[in-house]
Amino acid sequence: MLFAFVIDNHSYLSYFRIMFVCICRRYREQDIRRAAHAGLRSARDIYRELGAEPSCGRCLEFAEEVIRDVHVGTPATDATGAAQAA
User: What pLDDT is attached to residue 86?
Assistant: First the structure.
């Protein structure tokens, strides 16, 4: 986990954390979430959209967990956008 310190407009120190999902490709959790919110539903599709396939693959399980978290309560669709049966 990487911590970064910034001085905001209120002139006090605050910190935020940057969670990397894929160290090999430097994809952050917020990158995965943003792509999932845009409608992508698999880690491999998101990685392709971000520019590169997974390298070692150890991150895929966590990436899929982040994607599921984004899509909780959203009906699954197929490639054409039609709702899939549960």
Answer: 45
Confidence (pTM): 0.65
Residues of the chain with pLDDT under 70: 1-17, 73-86
d(CA 43, CA 85): 21
Q: E strands along the chain, which residues?
A: 2-7, 13-18, 20-22, 27-28
* Structural domains in the chain, sorted by start: 2-70 (1.10.10.1100)
Sign of the Cα pseudo-torsion (6, 21, 56, 42, in order): negative
Q: Which of 66, 51, 71 is nearest to 20 (CA)?
A: 66
